[in-house]
Design goal:
Helix 2 packs antiparallel against helix 4. With 136 residues, the chain is mainly alpha-helical. The relative contact order is 0.11.
Amino acid sequence: MCNSSCLDAVTIYDFLVGAFMFLGSVCTAIVILPVVLLILPPLAYCFLRFRSVFVASTRELKRLEGLSRSPMYAMLSETMLGVATIRTNGYTDFFLRQFSEAHNRYTRAVWSFMASSRWFATSLDILSFSLLATAT
């Protein structure tokens, strides 16, 4: 069984492996093709700009997702506790409509988060292609 310190060690190890692979790749590219030095600063600047936009928007989108998820779960709990009263008084359509609106708000937040993640991945792919196009 792995506790949190074990998981931290695995995470740090994975990060270090990725970082050294990246540094090794960049050093190899610079040694073999020095022209790569010309394209690295603009690409690094673009990466940092994309990353800052992504981190700021992701933080806000995750906050919105949490805000939209909480009422949905609260509504589910309330509905399960009062299902007999809701059916007796004929409010099933009202609660269904309310839940549908809450679920739509939650889905919009999740979809926005996924779209921003795909935007960032596509931006990184474009930057990678630019580096490869320069190197070849």
